[in-house]
Amino acid sequence: MKSRTPDSEADGWETVSSRTCFEDGNLTVVIEEMRSPARRDPRLWTVVRRKGAVVVAPITSEGKLILIRQERIPIRAAIWEVPAGQIDGEFETNLDEIAAVALRELREETGFELSEGGDLIPLGDYFTSPGFTDERGYFFLARPVRECASGHSRDESESILDCRAFSPEELRGMIANNEIRDANTLAICARLLACGFLSFGQG
Amino acid sequence: MKSRTPDSEADGWETVSSRTCFEDGNLTVVIEEMRSPARRDPRLWTVVRRKGAVVVAPITSEGKLILIRQERIPIRAAIWEVPAGQIDGEFETNLDEIAAVALRELREETGFELSEGGDLIPLGDYFTSPGFTDERGYFFLARPVRECASGHSRDESESILDCRAFSPEELRGMIANNEIRDANTLAICARLLACGFLSFGQG
Fold first, then answer.
1. Do A193 and B193 touch (CB under 8 A)?
2. pTM, full prediction
3. pLDDT tens column, A156-186
4. What is the CATH number of domain A53-195?
5. DSSP B135-178
6. For residue range A185-200, what is the model confidence (pLDDT) as tens digits?
7. B43 and chain A: CB distance < 8 Å anywhere?
């Protein structure tokens, strides 16, 4: 797994200047003056730096996808989405460590865990909005999953209202009718469909 | 189309306090103290406010999807993605105005336009990272599209390196092998697949 090297001068990306404008525990806003491989005249860009995150598709032995319903303050709404969570601590350079975060978030947010003999399959990564942020999500398929004896252990700062299993046909309907509408869930579904781990059947 | 009412006290969302920490023409960082329908104890949250955007899937009469290859400063990389652009000016409350932005961005970024008798089909919206930003993308399918006589007219601030048409099978391979890895493109593909406007065929 490649580490992020935001200040690397390799490959024609060159930081001419960089000024931190805001920083708290959640994000950092930097105004950067950058040269790129195709544009040697420096451009100013406002960038929001964020920790990476894990994004997990938990699929049961019946082929259903587990979603949580979560309140999201920035959009003033509760939405159905796959479990996910930020990668704390060190930079995300080690896929084994990231996988451990994925299993922890799965258990904490849904109360599900990998079944004995189940697999946690890395499915690459993605950028949530590369026009303004370096935020990156690391995709995992967890299958099959089963309910933990101990249940979930949700973080106090979260607000998870519900957790349910949805069939591929239900999922397809929720995506088509705009009920599923966050990047994590839509993007991991695209990856699952492209990799043959999920099928919407014949239209 | 519902307008965003970030300070609405309706439906149990209540802003207890709000402090703007950073603002430029690209984004605004606000620390909000919010009550939500499920959590009456106020929580502090750092929110990045951004303009909405259009996200367009242009499909040719041969069923190919037009992608652009664009340098993205925040991630230090050039990636293949669908054309997209921010909605300037007024709040995005009028779907006709948003559709006009979609057609303009399509033409500017790709040099393609709707064929005579072609359709611009709204496909709902999505949130790029609702854990920290209200940024919302409005999806459109444009089909069939054809090359403009006048070509593209790219913005000076952008850095678009290439533009090509990809078959559904090529697209599927690029999503599966992590070559397509931005939220806009993955998410609109999930919506297109769920709505039956795109098919990856049998795995």
1. yes
2. 0.93
3. 667 899 999 999 999 999 999 999 999 999 9
4. 3.90.79.10
5. -EEEEEEEEEEEE-TT-----TT--EEEEEEE-HHHHHHHHHTT
6. 999 999 999 999 999 9
7. yes
